[in-house]
Amino acid sequence: xxxxxxxxxxxxxxxxxxxxxxxxxxxxxxxxxxxxxxxxxxxxxxxxxxxxxxxxxxxxxxxxxxxxxxxxxxxxxxxxxxxxxxxxxxxxxxxxxxxxxxxxxxxxxxxxxxxxxxxxxxxxxxxxxxxxxxxxxxxxxxxxxxxxxxxxxxxxxxxxxxxxxxxxxxxxxxxxxxxxxxxxxxxxxxxxxxxxxxxxxxxxxxxxxxxxxxxxxxxxxxxxxxxxxxxxxxxxxxxxxxxxxxxxxxxxxxxxxxxxxxxxxxxxxxxxxxxxxxxxxxxxxxxxxxxxxxxxxxxxxxxxx
Length: 305
Ligand code: GLU
Prior knowledge:
This protein is of the alpha+beta class and about 300 residues long. It has helices spanning about 1-15, 65-75, 75-85, 95-100, 115-120, 130-145, 150-160, 165-175, 180-195, 200-210, 225-240, 245-250, 285-300, and strands at about 35-40, 45-50, 55-60, 150, 195, 255, 260-265, 270-275.
């Protein structure tokens, strides 16, 4: 398996120069654009990895899967999907346009920024610290890594440059789509995005979803079978933003990307497959990561379509 992963990473490296690291969060601009790693976690709980496996990235939007899973478990599907839709969006991840154009002003899906901010507002916790602790705990249970934590420098950097996400939050409140203290909810959002992890952590998280909600390493049930299925369905249709269709054609299994350069893939009944490579394409998805996953999908027959 290490050899297959290594070959896919080498092919992925071939496109790194066409990408660029995210700079709109200044701290992310310090990431190494040439780093690339891949990991595979089977449902037997064994993890293999190759490439620059020491690379640590922040989860960014991948954390939205954990907070949505938590919301589905604590609030129920009906409550969550009354407030946020489940349809793909052909707009960029932080777009405000569609939110305003159509009433009711419901975010299109929970994996774009407006939807994820709204999902956090639904969690039954009194403030940001409690809310973030619960999301962090969920990522620890999904990855089986008790040491996961928030990269404070990245969280602070995003908070300082958060005009767009603040606009989304205040707009949602102005149209009564979201209740609560917007600053407090956004604070949780910035911190959950800054949870730091390795490519192996992401592979185990993907495997937890592939195993119907049970972490294959710790054998702990993190989500119900139904929640795991809903999360995989949304990852398949909305996981790579306006690049989700292209990813389905080229790679063909559910995945969620983040602007830190991670992509967490989940192949039901088989494995979690992940990549970490901070150089992004124009849609904010890891350019070398997608190329690597395309190769792995072929060599390991991972396509679910
Ligand atoms: N923290 C990022 C933002 O809100 C997440 C976006 C992403 O990973 O795609 O802009």
